[in-house]
Amino acid sequence: LFVMQKYGVWRVVLFCLIFALFARFFGVYLLLHNYVSLFTGTTTPVFNTIFCRIDDFVLGMGLAYLYIDKPRLSALWWYLVGFASLFLGFWLHDLSQGVLPLIVQPVTNTLINIGFFSLVAIMLCRPVVLWRWTIENPVLQMIGLMSYSIFVWHGVAIAPLDATLDAWHFVRYIVLVFALSWIT
Fold first, then answer.
1. The predicted structure's pLDDT at residue 39
2. Who's near 65: CB < 8 A, 6+ residues apart?
3. How far is CA 57 from the centre of its chain?
4. Average confidence (pLDDT) per 10 residues, the chain, 184 residues
5. Phi, psi (5° rounding) for residue 130?
6. What does the alpha-carbon distance between residue 93 and residue 100 come to, in Å, rounded to a whole number?
7. CA nearest 4: which of 49, 84, 68?
8. DSSP tag of 137
9. What span, in angstroms and rounded, lies between the C-alpha atoms of 103 and 67?
């Protein structure tokens, strides 16, 4: 926040997007050269560090700034960027699960972040009735407040409750994660 005050919100957002992208590329390099041992064969241990996820937090700060500033945004442009970026990001992510090399995954994270940022930005700055209801919904706001706790607790709860086993295990997992997140 201090850096944003000194250099401007959008410079810091852009810097963090680029920094996180390079951090994820470095993480893939470490994985490919076996400097990091993986417990699942995925990029999760590398991509969940603060260096690789700083763009998630800073983009959220950028959204808060947009919400306060309320600039005039061209809805069509933001929807196009949002949906195109999400489509391309998820498509490349799926292809990186066997067709494309692992080195593509850092780009997929950035594209997905930009896609969600664009769509939420247009919801915040040009709210139509549905978006306004979504943003002002107290249940969804509480889930937003709990989002970091949900992120932390889901890893603790998923293995012992075996959430992928069946619907009953999944429901127990969801209830436990949300209860722990609400408490914390």
1. 45
2. 9
3. 8
4. 91 95 84 55 66 90 86 80 94 81 83 92 77 81 85 76 76 87 88
5. -65, -45
6. 9
7. 68
8. -
9. 34
Task: Please tell me the distance from the alpha carbon of residue 121 to that of residue 72, in angstroms, as a whole number.
Answer: 11
Give the CA dihedral 38, 21, 155, 1, nearest 10 degrees: 140
DSSP code string of 148-174: HHHHHHHHHHHHHHTTTS-HHHHHHHH
pTM of the model: 0.71
pLDDT at residue 163, rounded to an integer: 65
Dihedral sign of CA atoms 79, 83, 119, 113 in order: negative
* E strand or H helix that includes residue 5: helix 2-7
Count of residues making up the chain: 184
DSSP 135: H
Residues with Cβ within 8 Å of 162's Cβ and at least 6 positions away in sequence, in order, are 169
Residue 9 is encoded by which pair of tokens? 């919100």
* Tokens coding 120: 């939420």
Torsion of CA 160, 163, 164, 166, to 10 degrees: 110
